[in-house]
Write a structure and sequence with these properties.
The protein is of the alpha/beta class and 416 residues long. 35% of the residues lie in helices and 13% in strands. 46% of the residues are buried. Bound molecules: pyridoxal-5'-phosphate (PLP). The site of pyridoxal-5'-phosphate has 13 residues, from helix 5 and helix 6.
């Protein structure tokens, strides 16, 4: 990376914090003192309100209410009520989002539903550099069903690969590794012109930037509850089905809670109207509760302001890496232009894993993505601008002292 001309100082960043309308929101999160947390793209920080709400649900609703709480406290409705909150964040209408299972399972559900809705087409077009699990699911579907034809194209060539044999395009709005934004409106329109459906993975965009699924005529989408939505480790995922498709699409999993009348205990499955048919088994109330409480914090802030600050933070970070770490072999693998990237920056270095560990030892927490990518996310709700300076100063110190050489940092953990 080459240094830019104008020098950015720590005072410049402190001045931005004084003006920042989102700065007070940080108090709503629990963060260990001294830690600069640049991994909210992987596991969002803990909103304080989650602690109180979870305690209330465990101690009072479960402890005292027992089974009565399914009705008295609306537990049974959580997949939809929490889904309606997520709908507001991604530009969907109430009744278009449901919270259930994991992102991966939801990809399976919606991809199968889309294939069933396009029986004359067997093509599934995948982004070759998508998060691998998305493509693994497609491979699994191909191996279970007859005659499914998987095609792969790079993100840049995806639009051109759509033709009238494609039933479904499966792609990520923001690439998990590079942070590059995919042309969601353009690809959606192109798929529709060819008669295909599109399933968008919003794991790296929901809650951190405007997505506008309805304005962009998105058919199907999924996303994670534990990244920017701050629902906690392993929080349930969500799925979106546009209202116009809801009666047409049938899930592959005929769950009893997706039945039109679950408590009629009929011998045969009948789909519930609308989005509810995609629900399967009993919702995990504790996980949904944490996600529900976290969403209340997110819904209080203006998403456009979140995006503006996310751009400012990541721009400052890149500028500072160019300025302070030049000559250390760190290559930017994210778009330099902030309008082309989501909320993360990746730097490539052959010692990426050990550098990441050395940074964590200095209380700057990012993560590592094989083969050699250091990944940093910039959650505007709990980061200050000055954190960018302090994080890059730590990175510079790690690089100058070659701290990655330490054997403790070279030992690869299972989770990276
Ligand atoms: C883009 C993307 N899609 C899907 C997943 C998988 O989500 P889950 O493990 O919750 O199914 C992840 C996880 O990090 C992801 O980043």
């Amino acid at each position: 990376m080459t240094p830019c001309v104008a020098k950015l100082t720590r005072d410049d960043l402190l001045a931005l914090d004084v003006e920042d309308p989102l700065a007070p929101v940080r108090k709503r999160f629990c963060l260990p003192k001294g830690v600069i947390y640049l991994d909210g793209n992987s596991l969002g920080a803990l909103p304080r309100t989650v602690i109180e709400r979870t305690r209330e649900v465990v101690e009072h609703q479960w402890g005292n209410g027992l089974i009565r709480s399914w009705t008295a406290h609306g537990w049974i409705d959580l997949p939809r009520t929490v889904g309606d909150k997520i709908a507001r964040l991604v530009g969907a209408r109430a009744g278009e989002v449901i919270v259930t299972d994991s992102t991966t399972v939801n990809i399976f559900r919606l991809a199968c539903a889309a294939l069933r809705a396009r029986p004359d087409r067997r093509g599934v077009l995948l982004e070759s550099d998508n998060f691998p699990a998305d493509n693994y699911i497609a491979e699994g579907i191909r191996d279970w069903l007859d005659n499914v034809d998987l095609r792969f194209a790079s993100a840049a060539k995806l639009a051109n690969a759509i033709d009238d044999s494609v039933a479904l395009v499966l792609a990520s709005h923001v690439n998990y590794r590079t942070g590059r934004i995919q042309d969601l409106p353009g690809i959606t329109a192109q798929a529709h012109d060819a008669g295909a459906l599109v399933l968008w993975d919003l794991a790296h965009s929901a809650g951190i930037m405007p997505v506008d699924v309805d304005t962009n005529d998105v058919d199907l989408a999924v996303g994670c509850g534990y990244k920017y939505l701050c629902g906690g480790p392993g929080a349930p995922g969500f799925l979106f089905v546009a209202e116009r498709l809801q009666e047409e699409l049938l899930p592959p999993l005929y769950g009893w809670l997706g039945h039109a009348e679950p408590f009629a205990f009929e011998p045969k499955w009948r789909p519930a109207p609308g989005i509810s048919r995609h629900q399967c088994g009993t919702p995990g109330v504790l996980g949904m509760t944490a996600l529900d409480a976290a969403l209340d914090v997110l819904l209080e802030v203006d998403l456009a302001a979140v995006r503006r600050k996310s751009v400012a933070l990541s721009d400052a970070f890149v500028t500072l890496v160019e300025q302070e770490c030049d000559g250390h072999g760190l290559a930017l693998d994210s778009p330099r232009d902030a309008s082309e990237r989501g909320n993360q920056i990746v730097l490539r270095h052959s010692e990426g894993y050990a550098i990441c560990q050395a940074l964590i030892a200095r209380n700057v927490i990012g993560d590592f993505r094989a083969p050699e990518h250091l990944r940093f996310g910039f959650s505007p709700l709990y980061l200050w601008h000055v954190d960018m300076w302090d994080a890059v100063a730590a990175l510079r110190d790690v690089m100058e002292a070659r701290e990655w050489d330490h054997p403790a940092f070279q030992r690869r953990a299972y989770v990276t």
